[in-house]
Structure formats: C-alpha cells, structure tokens
Design goal:
The structure holds two protein chains of two kinds. Chain A is of the alpha/beta class. Helices cover about 40% and strands about 25% of the residues of chain A. In chain A, strand 4 and strand 5 form a beta hairpin. The N and C termini of chain B lie far apart (about 45 Å). The chains are: A alpha/beta, B mainly alpha. The structure holds adenosine-5'-diphosphate and magnesium ion.
Chain lengths: ~270, ~220
C-alpha cells in the first residue's frame, strides 16, 4: 500500500436542520484498503458514506480526494464522482433502460460530451481534431459492458429491462455498472439488506472478487461474517461519531466500549 | 363544411397539445430541479405565477385577449386558437407532469449523479422518460379535453366544428339537426381517442409486468 490516503476525511459534520447526524468524523482510506462500517440503525453510516461523494452536502469539515476538497462547493463534483462508484441498498437500476444501456449510459454520455468539447476546441484551433468518433465510443463501451456482464454470467440479460430481474441479478448489475466507470474506490451502502437470503451469497461473492483484485472499498453492512473475512479495518459508528475502530480481530475479539459490546451481542446472536 | 370544421378542430387541438406539452414539461422540470437542487429559483417562481394566472382565468377571456389585443395584427385564427389553447393547456400539463416527476423514485436521480452524470444529463436520459410514461394516461385525457374545448374558437370567428351549426342555421333556420350532427362528430372523435387511451393504458400495464419502461430512448 502507498502511504498517501486516497480519501482523507477531516472533522466532517452533517446536520439535517436541527438534527446533527455526523459530529466530527475523521478517517483516512488508503489505496486498496477495505473499510467496513458497522453500527446501529440511525447512527449515521449511510450519511457518512453519502457525504464521501457529496450525495449529501457536508455541513462542515473537509474531504480530500486527489488533492481537491470535495466539501468545497466550487469543486466540480461530477468529475470526482466518476471515480467513485456507489452501490445502493435498493439497486437503483435505471427502469427505462435495458441492462446493457444501464451499464453504458454514463460512460457513453460523458465521453460523447468530452468529444463534442474537443471538437469545438479544435474548431477554434486550440488543439488537434479528435480522431475518436461517436460510433467508436458506442462500440467500445458496448464491448466493455458485455465483458462485464460475462464476468457475472448475465450476458443473456443484456437486452432486457430491470423489472424482469431478481434482486441478486439487479445488485450485481448495479455493481458492474459502477465498475464501467473504472472507479478508484467503491462505496457500498448495505448492498445485501434488500435481498432475499438465498441471493445474498452471489452479491457478497462478487464483492469478495473485487476485494481480491485490490479495489479500494468502503462498505456499510450488517453481514458480520463478510466483515470479518474481507475488512482490513472496521469502523463502529455510534451517534454520529466513529466510536471505535480496528482490525476485525480487535473489533470482534476485543471490543472496548460497552456500546460496541452491546451492538455485537445483538447482531451476532 | 363539416369536414373542414372537423379538420380545424383537430388541427387546433394537435398544435395546442404540442405547445402545451412543451410548456408544461419544461415548467414541471424547472420546478423539479428547483426542488431537488435549490437552483433555478427565479424561473420556478415565474412558472408558478404563470400556472396560477392561466388556471385562474377563463379560457374564453384568454382567447379574446390574444385574438383581439396581442395578435390583433394577425388574421390567422387557427394559429391564434392553437397558441391560446396551447398556453392554456401548458398550465394544466404542468400539474400533470409535476405528479409524473414526483412519481419517479429519488434513487434514479441519485444513481445517475453517483455515476458522475450532471443533473441535466440525468433528467434528460432518466427522469423525463419515466415521468412522461407515468403520466401518459392523464396527458392523453388532457388532449381529449382540448379537442372539445377548441369548439370555443368559434366565438372569435374561425371555422371549427362547433361553429358550423351556427352558420348553417343562419341559412336554414333549422336548429336541431346541425347541432346534433356536430355533437355526433365530437362524440365519434372523442370515442376514438378514448379507445386509443385504453390501448395505451393496457400496453403500459403490460410493460410494467415484463418490460419496464417506454422504449429505449435511442
Ligand atoms: N435526508 C434526511 N433528512 C432528514 N434526516 C435524515 C435524512 N437522512 C438521514 N436522516 C437522519 O439521520 C440519521 C442517520 O441516518 P443514516 O445515516 O441513514 O443512519 P444509518 O445508515 O446508520 O441507519 C437518522 O436519524 C435519520 O433519520
Ligand atoms: Mg443506512
């Protein structure tokens, strides 16, 4: 692992009106690190994760990612979000798009826009005329999407709409949709909580594969077995702060605070 | 004469529907973006003002103002009728489209934004198609209303189905027959349109079960 953190969160706070949900959270996420976030419902896990890519605007503090502070409203957040994949509890596949289009929409839209901008600049003689064409972009992204679908064994679903899929299939497609942007970090917010029990395994297996390939991951989950196996570090959130953190051995084998002991007793029973 | 009137009625309704949909969807979209991101505040206020004024005044009055005042220099009654009804219908379509936008799951926008698409890119590719699909039946209903309402255009002197009985009657002094034919023609058109609406509804229900959205947008 390199020494410079990929994401550096400092004194992050978040309030919804009067309600303070995050009270000064500081954490570093190193390249390739797998950080699992656990804690009782309402403790602020989702809010923390959603602040990392500014789906929630932080109230205070800073989030350094690639030498820019994402908490600064002047930063172009779209550019950074392209490098941070996010997977939601409710999958959130695009209902009006086929599986293949779900995967290609963002990369194609963004590359086409870049191409149009480059063409405009070339018109004013500011740079070389781009050699890439729209058709090429489409072809490349379709091929890449088919490879991603092959990886999860769902090539035959390329042209169906999401409403025909099982929860496990939807979530695996949501994961490869995020991967199609070649993200530097993947954020997971309870990716298996909305699934029928028999489908949890296929999603966790895919996540384990990503972990083995060295993807940087921040995962909110209640799957303690998975946390123990995959996590480099576990954060225990309680009432808007990181109350305790450590390796899986430390958290599960030697919890310090009463709150963590009570939480573990509840989820492990 | 009846057929010419029918053609005008449908033409006015069709152009008005197009104008209404563009105005209505744009206004609903401005309000949606304002609600989700806090931007476009002034535009959103203007849209709400427009909706209040148009919905709060009779369409006959709007027609007269546009025909006799705003477009006094222009004698194309059909176009003025279409513009009036389009602007009027836009305010109602905006309400229909608003509920369409609100019925789209917030997760759709979040997914688009999390992939690095801008708000506008997500609205265009994901939110608008789903919002329109969700409110296709009431939109089509609005179109049927439009077909009937355009009979009013007769007030300011354009050939239209509702006006022809008046013309014929002034020659034949036979009230009942022309009015009846006009009513029957309207009924026929509305019944055909209602039938189309039912087909659309059935198709939508079917694609809900095994297909999902409206087409693929490409
Ligand atoms: N958009 C919101 N508006 C108001 N309150 C919110 C919003 N999102 C979350 N909260 C509140 O913030 C607290 C923490 O929520 P969350 O981060 O979702 O917790 P967790 O994911 O750990 O269950 C909860 O009390 C929740 O009600
Ligand atoms: Mg949560």
């Amino acid at each position: 692992m390199e020494n410079k953190p990929l994401i550096e969160v400092r004194e992050l706070t978040k309030s919804f009106g009067e309600l303070q949900v995050l009270r000064s959270v500081s954490v570093d996420i190193m390249p390739g690190e797998k950080v699992v976030i656990i804690g009782a419902s309402g403790s602020g896990k989702s809010t923390l994760l959603r602040c990392l890519n500014c789906l929630e605007d932080p109230t205070g503090g800073s989030i350094m990612f690639e030498d820019e502070d994402l908490a600064d409203p002047k930063v172009d957040i779209n550019i950074h979000r392209q490098k941070m994949g996010m997977v939601f509890q409710q999958f959130n596949l695009f209902n009006n798009k086929t599986v293949l289009q779900n995967i290609t929409l963002a990369p194609v839209t963004i590359r086409k826009k870049k191409l149009a901008q480059a063409k405009r600049r070339a018109l004013f003689g500011k740079c070389e005329k781009p050699i890439e064409t729209k058709e090429q972009i489409l072809k490349e992204e379709n091929e890449k999407a088919m490879q991603l679908l092959a990886r999860i064994g769902l090539e035959d679903k390329a042209n169906v709409y999401p409403s025909t899929l099982s929860g496990g299939q939807k979530q695996r497609i949501a994961i490869v949709r995020a991967l199609a942007m070649n993200p530097k970090v993947m954020l997971f917010d309870e990716p298996t909580s909305a699934l029928d029990p028999e489908m949890v395994g296929e999603v966790l297996d895919l996540m384990k594969q990503l972990a083995d390939e060295g993807m940087t991951m921040a995962i909110v989950t209640h799957e303690m077995g998975f946390a123990r196996e995959v996590a480099d570090r576990i954060l225990f959130m309680d009432d808007g702060v990181i109350a305790e953190q450590g390796s899986p051995e430390e958290i599960f084998g030697n919890p310090q605070s009463e709150r963590l002991k009570a939480f573990l007793a509840k989820v492990l029973s | 004469m009846y057929l010419e009137g029918l053609g005008n009625t449908l033409l006015i309704a069709l152009i008005a529907a197009l104008i209404g949909i563009v105005i209505g969807v744009v206004m609903a979209m401005v309000n949606y973006i304002n609600k989700k991101t806090g931007r476009l505040k002034v535009l959103s206020k203007i849209c709400n003002f427009y909706i209040t004024v148009v919905r709060g005044t009779p369409v006959v009055l709007q027609l007269m103002i546009l025909y006799f005042v705003v477009f006094a220099f222009w004698d194309n009654g059909i176009m003025i009728g279409a513009i009036t009804f389009g602007m009027n219908s836009g305010a109602y379509v905006a309400e229909i489209a608003r509920s369409g936008f609100e019925s789209v799951d917030d997760g759709q926008m979040e997914a688009g934004r999390s992939l690095g698409l801008s708000t506008w890119q997500t609205v265009r590719a994901i939110i608008i198609p789903q919002a329109l699909r969700n409110c296709l039946p009431p939109l089509f209903n609005e179109f049927i209303m439009l077909v009937k309402e355009t009979a009013i255009v007769g007030y300011v002197g354009i050939y239209d189905l509702g006006k022809i009985p008046g013309l014929i009657q002034s020659r034949t002094f036979d009230y009942l027959f022309p009015l009846l034919i006009a009513a029957l023609l309207y009924l026929a058109v509305v019944l055909v349109l209602t039938r189309i609406l039912h087909i659309i509804e059935k198709r939508l229900a079917k694609s809900d079960r095994n297909g999902g959205g409206v087409g693929n947008g490409k």
